[in-house]
Structure formats: structure tokens, C-alpha cells
TrEMBL record:
Keywords on record: Aminopeptidase, Cytoplasm, Hydrolase, Manganese, Metal-binding, Protease
Boundaries of every Cytosol aminopeptidase domain copy: 355-362
The record's free-text note on cofactor binding: Binds 2 manganese ions per subunit.
Positions of the catalytic residues: K287, R361
Enzyme class label: hydrolase
UniProt gene name: pepA
Organism: Streptomyces tremellae
Reported function: Presumably involved in the processing and regular turnover of intracellular proteins. Catalyzes the removal of unsubstituted N-terminal amino acids from various peptides.
Name the record gives this protein: Probable cytosol aminopeptidase
Record-linked PANTHER family: CYTOSOL AMINOPEPTIDASE, LEUCINE AMINOPEPTIDASE-RELATED
Residue numbers binding Mn(2+) 1: D280, D357, E359
Family: Belongs to the peptidase M17 family.
Amino acid sequence: MTALTLTTSGAATLRADVIVVGVAKGAAGPVVAPGAEAVDKGFDGKLAAVLETLGATGAEGEVTKVPAPAGFKSPVVLAVGLGRQPEKGEAYGTESLRRAAGVAARSLSGTKKAGVALPVEAAEDVAAIGEGLLLGAYAFTVYRGGEKRTSTAAAADAAVKQPLGEAVLLGAKPRDKAHKAAAERATALTEEINRARDLINTPSNDLTPEGFAAVAAAAGKEHGVKVEVLDEKALAKGGYGGLIGVGQGSANPPRLVRLSYTARGARQSLAFVGKGITYDSGGISLKPAGHNETMKCDMSGAAAVFAAVVTAARLGLKVNVTGWLALAENMPSGSATRPGDVLRMYSGTTVEVLNTDAEGRLVLADAITRAAEEKPDAIVDVATLTGAMMLALGSRTFGIMANDDAFRTTLHEIADEAGEAAWPMPLPADLRKGLDSPIADLANMGERMGGGLVAGIFLREFVPEDITWAHLDIAGPAFNEGAPFGYTPKGGTGTAVRTLVALAEHAAAGDLG
């Protein structure tokens, strides 16, 4: 992973392969952002004019390279667009800095060392730039290389550049406690987000429920997180009908993993529950062609929960956090659950399965019920749950539903603070009737319209009335099928980790009531 260091050295004297500066979109053309004063001076105050001559406007995501001024130890200056110049008296937003840093890091693949001279006014800027750099530099190269490659394949592998080796953040003070803490937090957080991305990008033949559980156990041992794993025998004995029902069609049996981080003196407790379908074929209700190829990402919710709990442990947050990974592979076979079958869930509730491709809510229901038995102050589940949520909010925004309006608002504010796009969604009472079954307590499908909300209503049925609960449907932003942007790569994104970690930080500070 890219190394992040802080320095008070000047841009002219830093020995690096490139110096990164920010440029904003001003009313009359590009404007050099704070932090780049030394570089602008090297251009006799004409850096903006030089960049404009080369076509730069300062628009977000724009990258322009120019030779460094005479006397600089670095040969190249890379100018990255920050978007609109703030009004007088305003500072650059942390998300703008995060995105710009991500674009710079992606543009510098194959570079060993870069000095980054983006605007730094406070520790929050150090954190945002650090996160952007380390997330933007991410690359998934596990399946590149091998001894028995053809010359063509070997050439293709050689063309894949390694991530930026080291990012030196200019203007940040290594001896300042707040700056140092911000950099350390950014490193721990992004390492776990990138681990989640690795899991999401790993093909399903190499990441089964058992394999995911083993990864969690190893990480728990490393970072002081207690890990308990229920295998298929324990699940059957315990009456986890949702997990067993979804997983029984696969040769790779299901698992329920409990991660537990306990902090001395903690006053609040949180439970995070993640959907972990390591591959979703749809089961007997088989997905149509064109909808199967990315279904290795259907465990993104569990990956986010796993990363959040480990991050909380690494940061030593003063809050108790449990993570529940509901892991199964949804496959069609002679032993698979059929449409029309009835499952008895861990709660004792019976569910008529009308569509085996609505499986995520079944495994989550079992895990939510189990998590609620420990009486946490709040439960948050995370899942790539419905295509309907993508239709509603697009591919970059996740939906937030809750049984408490105030908590839903708080989560929305926390997500925004963390830099993750989210939107509060309702749980309309009139949609509940569609989940009625003539032979069971519930059906796993309701009305087609508002399907993302119906799924949330289904999950709410398994939450005790005295426990605060929220549901994050991350179906849209969990896996980026398009081109990289900002600090977001193609493939697994690690969406919701920052929101969950920020929620845990608020709970540790006593900000949740």
C-alpha cells in the first residue's frame, strides 16, 4: 500500500518524482490553490497562465502536467482540478480535497514518490487528502502474473503499473498531534477499506463463505477482535432457517461470523450486520444473462462490516462494536430452496419464499435477530439488497431506512460528513400488506413498485421495537462497473465503511444520545 508521510519541507527542496498542486475553477479562468505558493513563485507567479495555455480550467478531476521550474528537486508538476473556487472566506471542502487527491494518486501509478501540495488548513484537511491519496492509489493485482504465461499475457501484465509508492503531504506538520493523528487514522481506515475492496474483487471460486470466515478470523487475531464462526451444523442446530435455506443449494455451505471489539470503559454498543452472499446466481429463480457476471460483489455489505469493526479496533475507539457477517452462496441445485418453500427463521417467524433471488433479506433477518439478542444501543445492517434502490438513487448513492427518524437523519449527516453519498428513504406503512402470505407469517416478496422500501420493511419485522435500527442499501455504489473517478476504482469500492466508522466514533464520543 502507498506510504503516507507528513513534512514541513518546501516544494522546491523536496526530492520526489513529481509535485502535486491544486488548481480551482475561477470566474476568469484557473486559479492556483493554497499550498502551491512555492511552485507558483517558481513560475514567476504565472503558473495559472501556463496551465490555462495547456487547456486547464480547474474543473474537478482534471489533470495537467508541466515541467517543474528551474531549481526544483522534482522534475514534474502535476496540477489537479479542485472544481469551483470557494467564495472569499470559505475553505475548500474536505470531499473536494479527497477527490482531487484520489485523482492525483490514480494518475501517478508507476511513480515512486510524490510531494502533495494541496490546501492544508486543519487536521481535517490532512485526513481528507490522506484518505484520497491512499484510496486513489488502490490497485487489485492479485491475479496478475504467473509462471506459465504466454508472451502476450506477460506483456499485458508488465504494462500494469504499480501504485504510487509514497505520498509526502507538504504543509502538514509531523510533530503536530492533530495532524499526526489524522494521518494515522487515514492510514488505518484506508487499509481496511482496501482490504474490503480486495474481498469484493476476489472471484467467488476463491472466496467462499468458509474462506471469508477464515480471512475474518486471521484479521481478528491480528487486531484483537474476537471472532466466532457458526458452520452449517451449528446453524442448523440453532434454527437459522434463513441462512440454511439460502445456502443449501451450494456445495459451499453458509457461515455466520460474529466479530466482537470490546473497549474498556465503553458506554455504548453498536451492532453492524452485513449481507455476505459470496455469489448470487439467483438460485432457482435464476438471474438472466447479463446479470450474473458481477455477482461476486453481493458480499459487499459483509466486507464493509468486517472492515468497520477492524478499523474501530485499530483506532482503539471507546465503544463496543459487534459485526455479524451473514455468509452464504446462492446457487441452484437439487437441494436448493424452491419458490413456494417455507423457511422457519431464527426468530421463529415463518417466511414463504416467492423468489429465491430475494435471498439477502433472508440471511440478514437471521443475523439481525441474533444481533438483537445482545441488546445493542443500535443495529445497522448493510447490504447490496435491491436493484430497485439503484433505480431510485443511481449508482453512486446508497439509501438509508430506519425505524427511528432521528437516527436516520443522524446517519445521513454522518455519511455526508464522511464523504459518502447517501439519501434518507421512508418505510411506508401501506407497503407492509404486500408481504402477507396465505400460508406463512410473511412472504419474502411484496409489491414490485417501491421494492427497495419493501425490502426494508421486511427487515424491520425482525427488529425488536425497543432497539434502534437502520438499513443501508448500498446496491448502487458498492461496485463500480464504469471508469474510475476521484478516489473510486473500477470494481469493489468499500462503500459504507467510512460511514460505519464515523458512526462508531460519534458513539465513542457520546454524540448519539
